[in-house]
Specification:
It is a single chain. This protein is mostly helical. The protein has a domain of 120 residues: Tetratricopeptide repeat domain (Serine Threonine Protein Phosphatase 5, Tetratricopeptide repeat, Alpha Horseshoe). It contains 8 helices and no strands.
Length: 176
């Protein structure tokens, strides 16, 4: 199963006031660096821009996604939590927090964050897809627990387990 984050390359989709021209140039530079494989330089560009304008939403969001992609999940999580506090009406930080939590197996937490994203922006397609993926994983967990709790295994429940596991395997991208 592949829960997807909102890419920082899609930042123009955030429905807020845009950054100043300077911050927009910094963001564009960082995006080019990132795509060219210059990831540490891209992070440095964003961090330098944030030193000048620490409240800039798009820069903060970009840094969170970069940290996430670099596997610095604690730092990414802290950035997204801060964004949910500073911009409580935005769905995207909740979606990305859910990605982190789902990746750590914290499905109930991920579900809550995705439901919050849906309340804020019902048409948020990525959050809708991610919620479906999390619910599927939660269903598998419930079926597994139910089967374990039974004194005698249930054939219908075993079939549900098999079909759910098969679906999850089909949805999970192959790891390189």
């Amino acid at each position: 199963m592949h829960i997807r984050k909102l890419s920082w390359l899609l930042l123009p989709a955030l429905l807020v006031l845009g950054p100043s021209l300077t911050q927009a140039a910094d963001l564009e530079t960082a995006q080019k660096q990132w795509l060219a494989g210059q990831r540490p330089q891209a992070v440095a560009t964003i961090e330098q821009a944030l030193a000048k304008t620490p409240d800039e939403l798009k820069l903060r969001f970009a840094l969170g996604v970069m940290k996430m992609e670099l596997g610095q999940l604690g730092a990414a999580q802290a950035l997204f939590v801060a964004l949910t506090q500073d911009f409580p009406d935005l769905a995207d930080p909740y979606n990305n927090l859910a990605v982190i939590h789902a990746g750590q197996g914290e499905l109930d937490q991920a579900r809550g964050e995705l439901e919050q994203a849906q309340r804020l922006q019902p048409e948020h397609a990525q959050a809708q897809e991610n919620l479906g993926d999390v619910l599927l994983r939660l269903a598998l967990r419930a079926y597994q627990r139910a089967q374990t709790a039974l004194a005698v295994p249930s054939e219908p429940l075993a079939l549900k387990l098999k079909r759910t596991q098969s679906l999850l395997q089909q949805l999970t991208p192959a790891k390189p």
